Amino acid sequence: MCYSVSSLTKARLDYARHRADDxxxxxxxxxELEELLRNEPPLGWVNGFAxxxxxxxxxxxxxxxxxxxxxxxxxxxxxxxxxxQLAKQTLNARSESLWEKxxxxxxxxxxRCLIIVDGxxxxxxxxxxxxxxxxxxxxxxxxCLAGLYAVWGATPTGIPYHGCSxxxxxxxxxxxxxxxxxxxxxxxxxxILDSNQQRVWLAPDADPADLxxxxxxxxxxxxRYEAVQAxxxxxxxxxxxxxxxxxxxxxxxxxxxxx
Length: 259
Hints:
This protein has eight helices and twelve strands. The chain is α+β, with helices and mostly antiparallel strands. It has one domain: Alpha-Beta Complex (hypothetical protein yedk fold), CATH 3.90.1680. The strands form two sheets. The chain has a five-stranded antiparallel beta sheet with strand order 2-1-7-8-12. It is globular, with a radius of gyration of 18 Å.
């Protein structure tokens, strides 16, 4: 799950104000972000299989903004064909198996990152009809997702490929209502980190036991669940899908409100 997100300028810049108390440091970070994103258009909708560049902050440089491709390629990958295939399979990383999967276990040990987005999207199914939903924070702050990253150096151009993966966990009750159909038969959602969990996730000495509390699903009340107009194409779009109010979803909205 979580194969599409939105990443807009406001969310990218707001992150700076939550990473430090020093006004000079915040100003420097905001300037760094503006320079980094000057030629990077904001995305209101993007499909993960297009491998867009997402804003990340890594364990090694927690105050240095980076743009990594969505789709992780581990260093041991041999060639471009294998890299292309793996990048499609590593958009998400299950929290339950991070330390077991060859693609993720080294990154889980020491290459964790924060991925900053405005929202993420999932489909809700009613019979043969499906409705796209956008999940975002109720306070309109950016979402900070738990991520992993890796650097693949064996590219044909010789320029290292920096890729990342969004860590997922079991869905909270509202997300389980929205994401009610999946190939695995299990409802999932991204791991959304609060400010304390962000520090734990980036801590260099954190072990699997320390990180386990980070994988709890985000509380239902912290997110807004909105039915939106599904894009006509899977191509990246600068426009945020508008909210719609189909009568078929009234019951769903009432169920979420009652949780």
